[in-house]
Amino acid sequence: MDDLPGRARSHDSAADLQADPRLLGTPISRLSHARPAARTGQQAGRQIVTLSCFRFDRFLDRAVQLGSMAGRKWLFSRIPGLGFARMMGTGTGEGFDPAPNTAVWTILATWDDETAAAKGLASAPWARRRARASEHCTLTMAPLSSSGRWGGTGPFEAWGASAPTACPIAVLTRATVRASHAREFWSKVPAINRQIAAGPGMLFRLGMGEVPLLHQVTFSVWSDPQAMRRFAYAGEGHRAAIAAVRRGDWFAEELYARFAVISAKGTWNGRPPLSLADQPL
Prior knowledge:
This protein is of the alpha+beta class. It has nine helices and ten strands.
């Protein structure tokens, strides 16, 4: 795997993330489920997760991406080693905004192992988008922890003790926002955006969504667990949002996951993707 900028300099490791319950991604709402989440069938300790980002400058290319959303299940149905995949649009502003950014699209996917990931990323759904895109990048990750559901599925299988250490840490949150609480949810976003942008150790950030306003994903990469911890527990905006969610019943479904970023390829805003701290998306 490629070396990355911002390798962790502290003694925190993947094991620390698993041992500390505050970092496991425990759901912050009052959801409870009588049945366990469905699984992808992929093996813990081998599963690879990729996030591919594509920027399209031409109007025609943007229209093609929008049209492909209708057939996205078919696009991924015959790729060997692919367990879970979501094609998503993005927000404007600083990466997480209710106004859509039609230029930037993403594909999040899980793979049986590194070999399956390499072959899958060379397959048509990815290759065709790279050919049309004015810019693209892919982050490759090992799951550290995950809790909650995404469309009824628990898609990420943690590596446990075999997880790579001294890597940048990616944080993914996904929520289905109840329509009755959408206004309150989005009112908290500007303060969190400002906090993320100002956070020391933040390397990359992006807001994504399957359904505008209601099915939302936040994704950020931090230089080490300490930087992630400072954002999660020291910032007023993020703590206020968590408190508001706990008081209410904002989410119909939620998922929280952490990853070790083990490879980054391509460019974003003309630079390697993990040298983008303080760069707006």
